[in-house]
Design brief:
Elements (H helix, E strand, L loop, with lengths): L6 E3 L1 H12 L4 H8 L12 E3 H14 L5 H4 L12 H7 L4 H15 L3 E8 L2 E8 L1 H6 L1 H18 L7 E3 L9 H7 L3 E2 L5 E6 L12 H17 L5 H7 L12 H8 L3 H10 L4 H16 L7 H7 L5 H12 L3 H7 L1
Parallel strand pairs: 5-6
Antiparallel strand pairs: 1-2, 3-4, 4-7, 5-7
Helix pairs in contact: 1-3, 2-3, 5-6, 5-10, 6-10, 12-13, 15-16
């Protein structure tokens, strides 16, 4: 059974290329560095492997060395419709809350490396953003995604909706001045996940172009896109579920089953019918992500072990030798 390999809508790298060019980066050089051919980007509604978007991000970060790059890439008045169907479903929602729920439901159409969830806690609402560990390690994509949510809410409502608090899954930066100016809210560094807190009342504000009849029609189109994305086998669905939890240690069968909304027994039985075990799916996921993270020269081997949920580097070394018949150090030198 093949390992789940996430994809992104071509609109995502197209927007990133336009934003990077605005900051002075050369488009052709970025495409070459990312291994992207121009013909791959001709149709904005086809999909490419998210690994190519990751390489594009690497290229942009290398060519625009700015600690606030992720925030500066976001246009203050950018319209969500640049992201196609997903953007339109948000733009015609009745309220900001409805728009966020649609973002949570349909974000996989845009990118299979992102999961958005909405958590109501009294007068405050948390918008939780979970990303592929590769992208979180780069940091700037996390900043861009958080900033895009804030600017989207402002655009949809026509009002200055700012977060109450921002949670960032990386260590505090030496210079946080731009982040403070952008978010105008307390910054909480070193958190397990990226998140934005908003006043619940602010999310009840109407969307300027609200049209729930049209939004309902777009919902049908979006649901059809979700069905076409594939990943219909239980093995593939399980492969998507734990990658955002690896940094917290080895995901348990029970936790992944709860995340998928099924019982532990149902998950075990379904995987067995497909000739897989939960342990084998997790092994496939770690092996695939390990290869990708080993190309990150700024990550030490022990850091990769932590990102993949290993309790100690020694366990990761043993797994790596089993997968590749060599040590992580030798593998990295050969690459």
């Amino acid at each position: 059974m093949a390992t789940f390999r996430p994809t992104v809508l071509t609109r995502v790298p197209l927007v990133l290329l336009d934003q990077a060019r605005r900051m002075g980066a050369d488009r052709r050089a970025l495409l070459t560095a990312a291994g992207l051919a121009p013909q791959e980007l001709k149709d904005p509604d086809v999909r490419i492997p998210s690994s190519k978007l990751w390489k594009l991000w690497q290229a942009v970060i290398h060519r625009v060395p700015d600690p606030a790059l992720g925030l500066k890439l976001v246009e203050p008045r950018g319209s969500p419709v640049q992201y196609g169907l997903l953007g339109y479903t948000l733009s015609y929602s009745r309220t900001l809350r409805r728009a966020l729920y649609r973002l949570s439901r349909y974000s996989r159409i845009l990118s299979e490396t992102i999961q958005v969830s909405i958590q109501d806690q009294g007068t405050r609402t948390r918008v939780l953003l979970e990303s592929d560990l590769q992208f979180e390690a780069l940091r700037h994509p996390v900043d861009t995604r958080l900033a895009s949510i804030v600017t989207t809410l402002n655009t949809l409502s026509g009002k200055p909706i700012m977060p109450l608090e921002v949670e960032l899954p990386y260590a505090k930066l030496a210079d946080v001045s731009y982040h403070r100016r952008f978010f105008r809210a307390p910054l909480r560094f070193g958190r397990p996940r990226a998140a934005l807190w908003f006043r619940s009342a602010d999310l009840e504000l109407p969307v300027v172009q609200a049209d729930e009849t049209l939004a309902g029609y777009l919902d049908h189109l979006a649901e059809e896109q979700l069905r076409k994305l594939g990943g219909s086998s239980l093995t593939e669905k399980v492969g998507r579920a734990p990658w955002s939890e690896l940094g917290d240690g080895t995901p348990s069968l029970q936790r992944v089953a709860e995340r998928m909304g099924i019982s532990r027994r149902t998950l075990q039985r379904g995987l067995r019918e497909e000739g897989k075990s939960f342990r084998a799916v997790l092994e496939d996921l770690r092996r695939e992500m390990s290869k990708q993270l080993m190309h990150r020269r700024d990550l030490a081997v022990y850091e990769i072990a932590f990102l993949l949920g290993y309790a100690d580097p020694g366990s990761y070394h043993r797994s790596f030798r089993r997968w590749h018949k060599t040590s992580p150090r030798t593998y990295r030198r050969a690459g």
